[in-house]
Amino acid sequence: MRPASARSGGLPGERPAGLPGWWEPLLTRAAAARTEDFTSLRTPATGARPSAVLVLLGEDRSGRPDLLLLQRAATMRNHAGQPAFPGGAADPDDRDAAATALREANEEVGLDPATATVLTTLPQLYIPVSGFAVTPVLAWWHAPHPVRPCDPAEVAHVARLPIAELADPANRIRVRHPSGWVGPAFQASGMLVWGFTAGVISALLDMAGWSRPWHPGRIMELPDPAYPPGPAPPPDGSVPVADASAAATSDEVVS
Length: 255
Fold this sequence. Notes:
The chain is of the alpha+beta class. The protein is 15% helix and 27% strand.
């Protein structure tokens, strides 16, 4: 396991008390994951901007896992209307990727960092279209609480998507970007999750053993230039979440 940071599960190899059994084998496999498990793209030696996203898994009252995602505001210049993991660019004061991911989640959806236990980080993944070198931070939401958009100009709403819904073969498709890029996607809770986020989710479903056989021949065309909007948020914007990101040039996770 990569070095643990503050608000982490403890020393390498340790498991926090009370960690649900469904975390295995995901946690063990994710902690040992390599960049090649996600993409063949390599982060350039210079020029990439460090960033991090929070891959936050909790569970519902029945003990079934779910994933926190947010949907970008439709008025944003970049990635308008797209679902995504909470996260963003690193600040000079951030001590590590976990600190960046937790800070951004707090700023975007009001997540209390003390309610999330960082378990491990995934390999840094490069997104050529934006120039970001993204470190996904895998965490357990051990004390879930209501979350909502902190700035409606940036985040339309947030939601907790059941893993069972994401893994349902009926909800899995691929999308084709106008550039020709084709990648995995999910239709869940009225949202279309594609791009970088969908790629990471797809890989994690495989690592966890949650994937079920599905038909990759189902391909949806993404319109240009507008991307498919998500559902209208409730009055307070506080719906459990979904994601998407930038497009690349290959049929891979990082897109």
